[in-house]
Amino acid sequence: MSKLELVHIIREKITKDGPIPFADFMAFALYHPKYGYYSSPGEKIGWEGDFYTSTNVHPIFGTLIARQIIQMAEAFADDPFTIVEVGAGLGTLCRDILVTIAKENPVCYEHCRYMIIEKSGFLKEKQKKRLNPLFPGHISWSNQIPKNLVGIVLSNELLDAFPVHRLTLGEGKVQEIYVDWEKDTFVERLQKPCKPALTAYVEEVGLPLDKTYQLEINLSSRDWITSVGEALSKGFVLTIDYGFPVEALYHPRKPNGTFLCYHKHKTNEDPYQHIGEQDMTAHIDFSAIIASGEKVGLKSCGLTNQMHFLMGLGITQAMEASGQKMHTCKEAEKEFLAMKQLMNPNGMGKTFKVLIQSKKIPDEIKLDGLQFKAFGEI
Fold it and tell me: Are 175 and 202 spatial neighbours (Cβ–Cβ below 8 Å)?
């Protein structure tokens, strides 16, 4: 029923105002307060949902991020700081991070507090039920990042689900995909871009207009990193997502863009089916995130892939330990294969990128996750 209700709401919007940019359609489908994909009840993440993240593969992912956070915390000396996770899913990453910090550096644990920014009421209740008994008084929830924040802003697969503008280039023109309603179905129309920033970015990147090309531009991700930089007084931003620097993202080898939908662990390119019941994503332009961050005082410490990030923090040692037990312990074999999946250069290891930005942080602070950033292509 929720799908039909959401289709009706979008159709009424189009009937009243005319065709809407695809970004607006995507915003309805994912974030409508009652019927949107991320707002409605139901399992989204994990083996019973539509997709899984690195946190579902093996807890070593959260453990190693915690070790990077412990290093970052040296910049705060003995002052209190806050870890802010934006979009925490089922709370798995939060759990794994806090368990590791409490175990490996109790002083750091006492100095830190954890805040979750979560729009979904359904997920928020799940997080509270799961996390509060484990870490009483240590976690809070909010609708926005607090001003004058001293700490670390963390996100894992957040920005890729922000609504994107879908553009087509060709015949010397830049056009945007709009969504219309005709003969009881959604149809696409090509019109003039709804915002000057879209055409300006195509020109800035230098994409040729004489070749047929489709791409996505995520303006919301730039607005987000700007708001993070403005709120952060001192600290780090740790962003994990799939994407590329601009020169690799908008490349002739990718003439059809990177937009995809996820439904029950299968991908498709049709956003007009399973409306409100499937995830929609597009790869992140990390160059735009870095440039927008610099305008609000965020310095780029480095961009690397997940494989090199985890290597820098010690995953190979953990894999070796499991590997030595594989022949005598089935559980060790499972652990080894799960960690291998996180590192797979043909999968998660290179698909996911890690960007660290900082504000008012001394250069000598060690970031082991970036020590192999220069090895191989991102």
Answer: no
One domain, residues 6 and 125:
no
184: DSSP letter = T
Task: Judge if 307 and 323 occupy the same domain.
Answer: yes
Rounded to whole angstroms, the Cα distance separating 118 from 320 reads 37
Q: Please, how many CA atoms are within 13 Å of residue 200, restricted to the half-sphere of its CB?
A: 6
Q: What is the pTM of this model?
A: 0.94
pLDDT at res. 50 = 63
- The pLDDT mean for the chain works out to 93
Length of the chain: 378
Hey, what are 341's tokens? 């999946």
Count of domains observed in the chain: 2
Query: Does residue 80 contact residue 113 with C-beta atoms inside 8 Å?
Result: yes
DSSP 8-state assignment for residue 170: E
What pLDDT, on the 0 to 100 scale, is given for residue 1?
A: 47
98 within 8 A of 136, measured Cβ to Cβ? no
Report yes or no: 66 and 152 within 8 Å, Cβ to Cβ.
Answer: no
Same structural domain for residues 120 and 231? yes
User: What's the whole-number mean pLDDT along residues 280-302?
Assistant: 98
Domain span at residue 232 reads: 54-154+224-248+277-370
At position 336, the amino acid (one-letter code) is F
